[in-house]
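Board work, copied verbatim: Cyclic dehypoxanthine futalosine synthase
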Amino acid sequence: MGQQADRATMLDRAAGGGRLTPEEALDLYRFAPLHALGAAADAARRRRYAGVEHIATYIIERNINYTNACVTACKFCAFYAPPKSDKVWTRDLDDILRRCAETVELGGTQIMFQGGHHPDYGVEYYERHFRAIKDAFPQLVIHSLGASEVDHMARISGVSAEEAISRIHAAGLDSFAGAGAELLPARPRQAIAPLKESGERWLEIMETAHRLGVESTSTMLMGTGETNAERIEHLRMIRDSQDRTGGFRAFIPYLYQPQNNHLRGRTQATIFEYLRMLAVARLFLDNVAHIQGSWLTTGKEAGQLSLHYGADDLGSVMLEENVVSSAGAKHRSNRMELLHLIRAAGRVPAQRATTYEHLVVHDDPANDPVDDRVVSHLSSTAIEGGTAHPELTVLNS
Ligand code: SF4
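↓ predict structure ↓
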């Protein structure tokens, strides 16, 4: 058999549920024809979601950034400020609770509490905030933080990661957002985030969380100079971890944004590389249920295309976002537009919960929600002039 015939056989096997080796995944990632890769990933998605394969989901959420002070100084990050810098800011609890109230008012179901590694913020800080949020808004799901924050807060408080996770879970954290995965293999991780915990430690903390009943998503930052083999190694590390715990609900690759950071955009992944990664992830990560397409870092057309390359979810209407926007992500959307994008891709949109249950299936456009305040970046410190909607008392800074 020729090499392309071998690849067609591999794609058929993976589409049918057979497991790919990392070597096969790398070969397909590098050489399989793009459309064949997408078709196999789409077949795998349809097989997994037989009966609801016509649906693509989205969520309404808000990122709430509590501080930009950070001791970790990742080279791709445009959000943080060194703790002694005059650019440091923190949000007080009242401010955070008002942002939660706006989220509820707009039909948001989830918040991502997201910030830097503040030198003074230990477990107690997160316990206090999560308790206050849950007391005021028990309906909001706190899907936040990741292994890096756990590693940092545990160190500040002088406790184990296990104790830190148990305590913030008891205080209200529902699930981890899987932030900080970046690139898990040692070489690219050291190159862009030398002060972060190792990839092995990141996975160890996530596995501890999964064993304590706190599930998470997993992410991958593409485009900071990693090799194709390192991208596939990242997937292998996640798949092996998932075989041990089963706690990753989703895999979410996204693209490095080039502005205002130390890397200065010298390397970037292309949209084709991104689509190939989504497709290979759908085929290789046979033990991860959901693959999320990113319109925020790739653009709306690529986000729409992602639904044909293995993604079953198109992320969120993010009422507030500052982190990747600080690095130059300029794409904006709203709920009506996301519904349109999903329909134009031949799928039926459904608003989902954090745990991926369908909350509303938008199967009749005549019944579409009409609240035009549900827009991404309704409030964002990372956009010049902000984008506050006039009808809401939205905080701009
Ligand atoms: S990515 Fe997170 S940990 Fe790294 S510098 Fe930015 S805020 Fe700090």
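The pocket of iron/sulfur cluster is lined by residues 70, 72-74, 77, 79-80, 116-117, 148 (CB under 6 Å).
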